[in-house]
Structures are given as structure tokens and as C-alpha cells.
UniProtKB/TrEMBL annotation:
Sections of the chain in a coiled coil: none
Chain spans, region Disordered: 232-266
TM ranges: none
Highest taxon, organism lineage: Bacteria
Name of the protein in question: HTH-type transcriptional regulator PgrR
InterPro entries, A to Z: LysR-type_TF_proteobact-type, LysR_subst-bd
LysR substrate-binding domain: residues covered: 33-228
Family: Belongs to the LysR transcriptional regulatory family.
One Pfam entry name: LysR_substrate
Length: 266
């Protein structure tokens, strides 16, 4: 059976359209793999355990079509009221229906300024700690009660003091000003001349989450998070205790965990 002239013209035209559709699909897929455009990142503080500046600098250098805007925002309301591509947050979050990946689990310790220790001493027991001014952070649920560990012993301690803040960065600033003892990520002593107190005790590791602003994150957002995960799981002596899973349960403060849909973007 042979095609008529009209049939052949119709066939050739359809073939061209199919090829154009495949080419468009391939171009769209390539666009999704290449970081470009503006990437807006919301950062908490402090972030000493992560070399965020290094990741940002490397990405801008290797992806000339990409620009990155960093926004330091601390409150949960920022996630609902601001546009962003990636938001980093310590600990469990409010009931938000967003996709997330865990960067890693990081040890926290107790820190104070040298001035504070010189004036009030370095507590060594929980009983002594009760007599000190403790700085309370409302920005991380895991730090509302300090889960202290030492040689297999676990103790819960409720911090009490005259100062509280909704961001770890402000809590760190209070500690640096000599206002009291704060629970902060390891390496906090690198800044502000902070020193560890109760050195034989550590806090339970706190997760750091990367929350995507879209269910279909762009290539730049995925690349940024992937680079942070690489840095978030260094050698065992650096402080990051465990590598993240691809499929993350993002716990909410109501206690009902949500399974984040990240497997397609890992």
C-alpha cells in the first residue's frame, strides 16, 4: 500500500512536529540540569559547621549564569511570607507542607564568654549549672530542653534565664556579650572568643534541614543542597556525626512527622 501525495505530506509534517517535540523536551531537561538564574537562599545562624561562603563562591565561579542572593532570616513566619529557593533551618519546623532534605546531624555544646567564666566560674555538674544564667533559644525545638550526654548518661535540663531569642545567632551574640551560657553548634568558639563550659557533657546532635521553596526545585537549588551535604559529612573528627538520608521525615512541632517528597530531586 502506497501513500498518496497528500498522505506523504501529512506524514512528513507529523514527523517534523514529533522531532520538534523531542528536541524541546531535551532542551527543557538540559535547562533543568544546569544551574542558572537567581538562587535565593535563606540562612539561619550560626553556621560555623558549614562552609556556606565556600559553597556559594564555588557555585558562582563554576556556574557563570547563576547568581545567588543570601538572606539571613530566622523566624518560622519567614518561610510562609517570603519567596525563596532554599531555606536552611535548625531542628524541627512548624507545620509547613514543604519538601526538605537533611544536611546532617551536628553536635551542640555549652559555651560562654571568657568574661562570664572569669566572673561566675565554669559549672561541672547539672546542680552547678542550675545556678547559672542560661540563654534560651526559641528558634530550635530541640534546644527548648537541653538533652545532655556524658559517657552513656543522659540528662534533660530545662534552661532558665532572663534572656531568650528566636534565633541561635542572637543567642550566640548574647553569650559573646557575657550574658550567660548558651547551647551552640560545635566550632562556635571560633568566633567571639567563646569557650566551652561543662566540657565533659555534650548535647544531643541537632539536625540541620534544607527546605525547598518549591515541590519541583530548580537545578541551582538542588546543586546548592548537594554541595552542603558533601561538606556536612566530613571526617569523623570534624563533628558531623551522620550522613543524611535521601528520603527525609521532616518532623513538625505538632509531633506528626511528614514524609518529604525528595527522592526525585536527590
Amino acid at each position: 500500500m502506497a501513500l498518496t501525495e497528500a498522505g506523504r505530506l501529512y506524514f512528513d509534517r507529523c514527523k517534523e512536529l514529533i522531532e520538534l517535540a523531542f528536541n524541546a523536551r531535551e532542551a527543557l531537561q538540559e535547562e533543568g540540569r544546569r544551574p542558572r538564574g537567581k538562587l535565593k537562599v535563606m540562612l539561619p545562624g550560626p553556621l560555623e559547621p558549614l562552609s556556606v561562603a565556600r559553597v556559594v563562591s564555588d557555585m558562582v565561579r563554576t556556574s557563570p549564569e547563576l547568581s545567588i542572593e543570601c538572606d539571613y532570616c530566622f523566624g518560622e513566619a519567614d518561610l510562609a511570607n517570603r519567596e525563596f529557593d532554599v531555606a536552611l533551618r535548625w531542628g524541627a519546623q512548624a507545620d509547613i507542607d514543604l519538601t526538605a532534605r537533611v544536611i546532617g546531624f551536628y553536635p551542640f555544646h555549652l559555651f560562654a564568654s571568657r568574661e562570664y567564666v572569669a566572673r561566675f566560674g565554669n559549672p561541672q555538674t547539672l546542680l552547678e549549672l542550675q545556678a547559672h544564667e542560661c540563654l534560651v533559644s526559641d528558634g530550635c525545638q530541640e534546644l527548648s530542653v537541653w538533652s545532655l550526654e556524658r559517657k552513656g548518661t543522659h540528662q534533660a535540663f530545662k534552661p532558665r534565664g532572663h534572656l531568650r531569642a528566636n534565633s541561635l545567632d542572637m543567642t550566640r551574640r548574647f553569650a559573646a556579650a557575657g550574658a550567660g551560657i548558651a547551647a551552640l553548634p560545635f566550632q562556635a568558639e571560633i568566633r567571639d572568643s567563646l569557650v566551652r563550659v561543662m566540657e565533659s557533657w555534650s548535647l544531643k546532635p541537632v539536625p540541620l534541614y534544607a527546605i525547598y521553596g518549591s515541590r519541583t526545585p530548580r537545578a541551582g537549588a538542588r546543586a546548592f543542597v548537594s554541595e552542603l551535604i558533601k561538606l556536612g559529612d566530613p571526617d569523623p573528627d570534624s563533628g558531623s556525626l551522620s550522613s543524611p538520608d535521601k528520603n527525609v521525615r521532616l518532623p513538625s512541632r505538632s509531633g506528626q512527622p511528614r514524609v518529604s517528597k525528595v527522592e526525585a530531586w536527590s
